[in-house]
Structures are given as structure tokens and as C-alpha cells.
Specification:
Blueprint: H1 10-15, H2 23-37, H3 43-50, H4 54-64, H5 72-85
Helix pairs in contact: 2-3
């Protein structure tokens, strides 16, 4: 499996109005939210990219005003989760 490395010039990183320790985490989350919003990533993959749990990412989407998409993959994930609980 490959890995994409995105290079962001130092001057852009310095321009971010965030504490240094939050920059990488925040960039992952921003990218995940936008890719999910545009239906380029599923909910599960977007939350993985964001490094968040299901409910935590769901809350983030709500705070950002992003409507949650629900497709067959999401339904299957939910059914698998329910099956594991029983």
C-alpha cells in the first residue's frame, strides 16, 4: 500500500494561526471534513484520516454544519457494529 506525502511550504505552516503542536492534527481534520463533505471519502475513511472515533467525527461534522451522508457502506458498518454487540 502506498503513502502520499503532501508537502506544505514552511511559510504556509507558519501562517496558520494555530499552536505548533496542533497544526498537523488540524490539517488532517480539515482535509477529512472537506473530502467527506464533497463525497470524495466515506464517513469511515474520513474519520480515519481525521484520527477520530465515530462519534467524535460525527460531532465535528455537526459543528462544521456538514450534513452526514448515509450510504450502503455506512449501513453495513452499522449492522456489523450491532452484530458485534449482540
Amino acid at each position: 500500500m502506498g503513502k502520499l506525502v503532501l508537502e506544505i511550504p514552511d511559510d504556509f505552516l507558519e501562517a496558520l494561526r494555530l499552536p505548533p503542536e496542533e497544526k498537523v492534527i488540524r490539517l488532517h481534520r480539515e482535509l477529512a471534513v472537506r473530502l467527506y463533505q464533497k463525497s470524495l471519502l466515506s464517513f469511515g475513511k474520513a474519520r480515519e484520516l481525521a484520527g477520530m472515533g465515530k462519534w467524535e467525527f460525527h460531532d465535528l461534522l455537526g459543528k462544521e454544519g456538514i450534513v452526514r451522508h448515509y450510504d450502503m457502506e455506512d449501513l453495513q458498518d452499522d449492522l456489523n457494529s450491532v452484530e458485534k454487540l449482540s
